[in-house]
Amino acid sequence: MAKKVSRRFQALLERVEDRAYDPTEALNLLKETATAKFPESAEAHIRLGIDPKYTDQQLRTTVALPKGTGQEVRVAVIARGEKVNEASTNGADIAGSEELIEDIQKGMMDFDLLIATPDMMPQVAKLGRVLGPRGLMPSPKGGTVTFDLAGAIAEFKAGKLEFRADRTGIVHVMFGKASFSAQDLLTNLKALQETIDRNRPSGAKGRYWRSIYVAATMGPSIEVDVNALRDLKLNEAA
Q1: In 3D, which of 148, 92, 146, 156 has the Cα closest to residue 124?
Q2: Which of 44, 32, 34 lies closest to 223, judged by CA?
Q3: Which pTM value belongs to this model?
Q4: Less packed terminus of the chain by CB within 10 Å, N or C?
Q5: Which UniProt keywords are present, listed alphabetically (predicted)?
Q6: Which CATH architecture fits 18-69+160-231?
Q7: How confident is the model over 31-46, as pLDDT tens digits?
Q8: CATH number of 75-158
C-alpha cells in the first residue's frame, strides 16, 4: 500500500528538481524546505562504493563539525576511582562505575553518548546487547574509549560526531540544524566530506562516492553534486 504524502510534503517535493545541485544551492533549498513546526536538523545521506560485510570495506570514524551540531549532547562516562570525579568535573552529565553499568542494564538511557575508560571495557562489553542496536557502544575508533576524559567530553560537546556506514554502504549523518546559515551548513558538510575521503577503507575499489543527498528532518531529499563538493576549497567553505 502506497504511503500517503501530505499536502505540505507534496508542495515541497515540487520545489526540488531531479538533478544534482551545487552544494550552496542545495543547502539554501534545504533551509527553504524546512517548514515543519519544530526545529529541524540537517541530514546527509551518502552512498559509498563499499560492501561493509568485508572488514577492509568498513567505515567507522568521527568528524568534528566546525560549526557544532546545534544540539546539546548528554554525555555519560563509565570509569573508576578518580576518573569518575574527573569526568564529572569536566562536564559529564552522568558518571559512574559498576553501578552505572547496572543502571544501564535496567534500562536507564538518559544520555546521547557513552564514553568508557579502557580498564572498564570488559564490564561494559556485557552492555553490547543494550547499547549495540542504539549505536551507543563505546569504541576506540569512535574516540569513546579513552583515559583522556576531559578532552573527549569537550570534543563531543563541541560538535564531534561518531558515524559509520550501514550494512548497505550508506552513511547517515546529522550535520547541523536547518536554522544554521547555508554557509555554516556548508562548512560542516565539507568537514564531513573530507573526513569520509580521509578514512576511505583500504578495500574500497572503483568509484568511492556514488551519491550524496541532503534533507531537513521532515523535508524532501536534495541531491548534491559530489564533485563540486569535493572540489570546493576550504577557504571557500570557511
Answers
A1: 146
A2: 44
A3: 0.80
A4: N
A5: Repressor, Ribonucleoprotein, Ribosomal protein, RNA-binding, rRNA-binding, Translation regulation, tRNA-binding
A6: 2-Layer Sandwich (3.30)
A7: 999 998 999 999 999 9
A8: 3.40.50.790
